Each structure stands twice: as structure tokens, then as C-alpha cells.
Amino acid sequence: MPAKPRINKLVVIGVGLIGGSFALALKKARIVKQVVGVGRSRKNLQVALRRGVIDRAETDAARAVADADLVLVGAPVGQMPAIFARIAPALPPHAVVTDAGSTKQDVIAAARQHLGAHFPMFVPAHPIAGTENSGAAAAFAELFRDRNLILVPQTETRAAAVRLVRAAWTACGARIVRLEAAEHDEIFGAVSHLPHVIAFALVNQLAQRRDARRLLGFSGGGLRDTVRIAGSSPEMWRDICIANRDALVPLLDGYISELEAARAALAAGDGASLEAMFRTAQQARARWLVRRD
């Protein structure tokens, strides 16, 4: 296990569920002295201050990163190019920068372009944790315990920077896994991004019905379980889906083909085909749950 780091100043840009929970976890582990939060919403920053998620609030990211030891960019991936460009001239030479973005190829390209000479101190990362809630009010220190944290260091990335980021996430209770950027985006397009698109689309389809209010009043656990993630941040998921569209569009095509097969079986009254489809899915789910245990 990596030795516990000592972080005098942590800057969290985007004090939401992920950034706020990272700060709380490091505070709980007693390895960070000061946390500065940066965000667009003064209301959210005030919530973060009241809850002790951060010790000081800033609206200017460049001013915030002065003398920083570690900077976590927890903003939506669509905002990251502008953030990298803003902080690059103000970063002290020793500062390590990391992110929590759900896509990696676009974030790495933006960091390489805008961080310039500081790019070797950038460690791309993605914590595989979250809830359907957002903002500093949703943050909690245990969010990352026993969850995977994906690291995607590049050939230029300095080993000392990787060690610091690895040790910080380990102190949060996360398990560290390394992937290549393209592999990461393909995997999470399938197991995370596609399910979110499906959940949002299903809620939209039901909500557009004339009897939506009455219909949803009869819904039970099945619908709630299926659409839980449609409560997630639309801005964040818009950016993720656009960034990973090269992987996501073919995945959507495959899902549409499955729906078309189900529709054809239903229209034909073909119960055998429908049952076979359902049984295949049930068995695949059972095997997946066994592997997870």
C-alpha cells in the first residue's frame, strides 16, 4: 500500500459529489491541511463551507491554484479545456493536477494542449463511484470505499505525480486499476454511458404521454430501479455522451437492434423467441453477479 501523502493545499475545481467526497475522504484520513474549493455557484460553495467540505471558497481557478500541492478537476468534461487553459500559467512547478472525468481521450488531449509544459504533472483518473445526486450537499467521505479508481497515466507522466494521485485515492479507500484511454472509453461507454442514455430516454418517453401523471402514480420498484440514474446531472451527462460519441453511437445501434428484435417477437406473438431473449439476459446477469461476488 502506498505511503500516506501529506498534502498542504488541495484545490478542488468543481465541488460536487465527486470533488466534495474526495475532499471529505482526505480530511477524514488526516492527510490534507487545507482544501480550497472553486466553482461557478456561490450557493453550492456556501453549502460546501457550511458542511466542512472545503476550508475556503474561490471563484477564480487561477488564483486558487497558487501554492497548490494537488489540484482535482471535478467539473464536467466539457469545461475541462477552459479550466486547464485558465490554471496553466498559475500552477506552481510542484503541483500535481488530476481529474475525475468519465471520459479520458478527450480530457487527455485537452490537458496536453492547454497545460503545455505542465502536462507531465497531469495524472488522468476516473473514480467509478457516484449516486444520482449532485452538488456539495450530496458529498460523503465513504463514497469511494472499495470502489475502482482508474488511472490512465501517459508516457510523459512523471512517476512522482502518479504516486501522489495513487496514494491519495488509496487513502480514500479506492482500489487502483490502470487502463489505456481508448480501452477506458469503450468500456465505460458500454457499462455507464449507454445505461444513462437509455434511462433518460425512457423517462422522456413516459413523461410525454398524455396520461403520464396517472401512469407514473402506479409505478413500482421496477421503474424506479431502471430510471434511478436519470436523476443525474444533465449537463454532466451531455458532456460525457458528446465526448464519447464515437464509442457510444455503435453501442446505441446494438441496443436498438435488441429492441427491434423484441418488438418483432411481440408483434408476431412469438413467445418462444421472447422467452429465449429474456432467459439469455437473465443467465448473463446471473453470471455477472457471481463474478462480482
Notes on the protein architecture:
This protein is of the alpha/beta class and 293 residues long. It folds into 2 domains: 7-179, 3-Layer(aba) Sandwich (Rossmann fold); 183-292, 6-phosphogluconate dehydrogenase C-terminal like domain (6-phosphogluconate dehydrogenase C-terminal fold, Orthogonal Bundle). Helix content is 52%, strand content 13%. It has a 6-stranded parallel sheet, sandwiched between helices. Strands 7-8-9 form a 3-stranded mixed sheet, covered by helices on one side. Helix 2 links the parallel strand 2 (32-38) and strand 3 (56-58). The longest helix is centred in the middle third of the chain and has 27 residues, at 181-207. The chain starts with 6 loop residues before the first strand and ends with a helix.
> Rough shape?
elongated
Cα Rg:
21 Å
Proportion in helices: 40-55%
Give the domain tally: 2
Q: What strand line-up does the widest sheet have?
A: 3-2-1-4-5-6
What attributes does this structure have?
alpha/beta; Rossmann fold; three-stranded mixed sheet
